[in-house]
Amino acid sequence: MNATHKQIVEAYFTGWISQNKQQILDTLREDVYIEECYGPCYSGKKQITTWLDNWFKRGEVLSWNITEEWFDQKKDTYMCKWQFECLYKEEKGRFDGMSIIIFANNQIKTIEEFQTTAKHEYPY
């Protein structure tokens, strides 16, 4: 595990919790590409800035905890499972997910998020 990559991802996640837009942007390359787990995609820091401004007006990340993590050094890729909780438009939401985060020159180049329901059932 590359400690620098882990620190960058933690800075990105905690930037959301503290609503620190600059902290988030500092982790990203100018040509960053982010796919949210429910469909929206953002390309470049200009779009990311607009997204953050709009999101922070309507919502608040309550927690975003990494539960498992992996690093592929050859592909400069960090992968993590997480639990996310927020308050958005006065509605509380919680779900589990996973991110695949690709780095270039010690900054985030790409984030792909995937979501699962927080409530898991065991039918057997």
Automatic annotation (TrEMBL):
What is the protein named?
Answer: SnoaL-like domain-containing protein
SnoaL-like domain spans which residues? 9-109
SUPFAM superfamilies assigned to the protein according to its UniProt record, in alphabetical order? NTF2-like (SSF54427)
Task: Supply the InterPro entries for this chain.
Answer: NTF2-like_dom_sf, SnoaL-like
